[in-house]
Amino acid sequence: MSILVVGSVAFDTVETPVGRAEKVLGGSASFFSLAASFFESVNLVGVVGRDFGEEQLACFAGRDIDLEGLERVEGETFHWGGRYADDLNSRETLFTHLNVFESFKPKIPERYRTSPNVFLGNIDPVLQLEVLDQVQEPRLVACDTMNFWIDGRLEALHELLNRVDVLLINDSEARQLSGESNLVKAARAIRALGPRTLVIKKGEHGAVTFSDEGCFIAAAFPVEDVVDPTGAGDTFAGGFVGYLAAAGTIDDATLRRAVIMGSTLASFSVEAFSVERLLSLTRDEIHARFRVFKHLIDFDPL
Amino acid sequence: MSILVVGSVAFDTVETPVGRAEKVLGGSASFFSLAASFFESVNLVGVVGRDFGEEQLACFAGRDIDLEGLERVEGETFHWGGRYADDLNSRETLFTHLNVFESFKPKIPERYRTSPNVFLGNIDPVLQLEVLDQVQEPRLVACDTMNFWIDGRLEALHELLNRVDVLLINDSEARQLSGESNLVKAARAIRALGPRTLVIKKGEHGAVTFSDEGCFIAAAFPVEDVVDPTGAGDTFAGGFVGYLAAAGTIDDATLRRAVIMGSTLASFSVEAFSVERLLSLTRDEIHARFRVFKHLIDFDPL
User: Fold this and answer.
1) With an 8 Å Cβ cutoff, are B302 and A290 in contact?
2) What is the C-alpha separation between B106 and B71, in angstroms, rounded?
3) Can you give the pLDDT at residue B70?
4) What is the mean pLDDT of residues A115-130?
5) What average pLDDT does the segment B137-141 reach?
6) At A4, which helix (H) or strand (E)?
7) Distance between CA atoms of A240 and A260, rounded to whole angstroms?
8) Strand A70-72 to strand B79-84: parallel, antiparallel, or no bridges (unpaired)?
9) Residues 6+ apart with CB under 8 A from B165
10) How far apart are CA B242 and CA B116, in angstroms?
11) Residues of chain B positioned with their CB less than 8 A from the CB of A299
12) pLDDT at A86 over 90
């Protein structure tokens, strides 16, 4: 069951303790699509400029990713630059050139409008709502957001949250959105705003999921050689939504495996710059690491 | 198989967002002993002053905790004061009155010297070594340390680590001791110093254990109403060592359950000030939460 994703397709210039990557493929929709396409067909909606060329498009080729919704307009592609600290846990933004993304108005191609699964990447909640207005009752709507929109677009964000099934955000955003420092309390407050399922991502500390079935705690896979954390959250979302989209029914067991799948995909993504590792990744590697994951957290009852 | 513990027995004055507790029972050996005594008999070595009275001693009464090794000398008991930030994840020390603890020289009573299990709480590594010199080849030696000793007593600490089986430290200490920011690399470097098993505690993010059998990742139990985190790490150590001491053999499966047991005990400890919650705790509650823990992290294979 196909997935519609709306988000950024961008260039990233990234410095990490390991090295530097100049103007490489980035953006939430890019990482999401590449991860999700291991499980289901993806319909991508985004915008790029004239400087987005064959080299970047080739990253999506040969995969089940439809690019009809990737607009190409006059101007330059969204370009983000950032530098990670030595421990790779914090980063500073060096520049944000929104370029063509500044006036992005998602236009959903006719044949995308019946996609049963929708992922709304981290863009203005006003635009996320406009996307929902253009699609026909999806079975699953998941979305991401960030501190910038919690600060500046809270009303639209509340309206949006009332219409989504799954919200994926990081722990500091969950605290900000709820005004609660305790994550259990934060989750209760946020779920009361609409999303039945809340996935709180904690980076190297894993993810905690709250649903009607209770709480599920997932570790992050311990990666020894982290090269570039950029896109890990979007890759997580891609693995998570991709797995749910491919699953027949969404129950507690499916949800738990989907979270681990998201974490598995993210653990690969950080092993190289940009989308490099996702491009070389195989289904066998994914399944093998999922199995290792199980062993890493398993313990016997008393 | 009994456990010898050497560490601080103290008064704590603690302020948290929930309230304030004045001159209540604290200290690493106190939390450790109360937690471990759910599983095995404990022989406690420490020192207190004349101000340490019946009220405090009553906390240990009726439990399998031997206090022959708890010296009572002229002067006042070690008294620590601290204040926690609103998110309970960071704290500032308001005062540290070492008092009688400043000249603490652990004297191990004769009948303690054959304790098969030893836990060296966070004291000067020089003293931790002196304790090891007084005991007869224990089957299990576990220890804790902190940034202060890594900075100031590195040589003695290295000598000590060469003689312990299990080191329990927090993530920032692991990074400091190894000089590695990545925990997988830090663990490899620290295990090369001696301890076959390394438990890295990450507070609300759980614990990661490295041993000859590989890596085990344990979540922290999500506590909604944290009242006072003081002593959580020592309570973790008490549950962990206590479970191992009571176990026949120490294999990978036992080690994993011991970590979860440590985490279970710690999750109770933070629910009240001082050792209050450990005093009201029952074995049934421990077993019930251990079972919930299993459900919280469990997922099916693909």
Assistant:
1) yes
2) 9
3) 97
4) 97
5) 96
6) strand A3-6
7) 8
8) unpaired
9) B140, B141, B142, B195, B196, B197
10) 12
11) 216, 218, 253, 256-257, 259-260, 294
12) no
What value does the mean pLDDT take over residues A7-24? Answer: 97
Taking alpha carbons only, the member of A126, A117, A142, A99 closest to residue A234 is A142
Q: Which residues contact B4 (CB under 8 A, 6 or more apart)?
A: B43, B45, B108, B112, B115, B117, B118, B119, B131, B135, B138
What amino acid is encoded at B9 in this protein? V
Residue with token string 């979007």: A234
Alpha helices by DSSP H, listed for chain A, are: 28-36, 54-57, 125-134, 147-152, 154-161, 171-178, 183-191, 232-246, 252-269, 276-280, 283-297
Helix-helix angle A283-297:A252-269, to 10 degrees: 110
Strand, coil or helix: A114 = coil
Specify the amino acid at residue A109: P
The predicted-structure confidence for A50-78, as pLDDT tens digits, reads as follows: 999 999 999 999 999 999 999 999 999 99
Question: Are B149 and B179 within 8 A, CB to CB?
Answer: no
ipTM of the complex: 0.92
Residue B248 scores a pLDDT above 90 = no
Is the pTM value of this prediction over 0.95?
no
Which positions in chain B touch A185 (Cβ < 8 Å)? 224
With CB atoms and an 8 Å threshold, state whether B86 touches A181. Answer: yes
Spatial distance between the Cα atoms of B279 and A170, rounded to a whole number of angstroms: 36
What would the two tokens of residue B232 be? 């959580």
First to last CA, chain A: 41
